[in-house]
Target: Death domain-containing protein CRADD isoform X3
Amino acid sequence: MEARDKQVLRSLRLELGAEVLVEGLVLQYLYQEGVLTESHVQEIKAQATGLRKTMLLLDILPTRGPKAFDAFLDSLQEFPWVREKLEKAREEAMVELPAAKLINSDTKWNK
Model:
């Protein structure tokens, strides 16, 4: 998963925990797409609360490869407002990250 996408998940972590119920379509879709293993699904389902399930999923997602973020977006069919928030945050991060890289590279040249 790209650093930008990891940052988006981190920055919206509490909102995602409050708004997304992962047990239904989200988990099954991510399993179907190969983002989660059967072991991941069982571990997530074993959590006591919906919040803990979502937090565990958010811990696992960044480790599951370059397609994990897009698959997560696709899994949010039941939560279109959450998907929109994530997409907006991702677009904003795309604008901010290149600017930060330019500043850092410019700083290196000035030394």
Notes: Confidence is low (pLDDT under 50) at residues 102-111. DSSP finds seven helices and no strands in the chain.
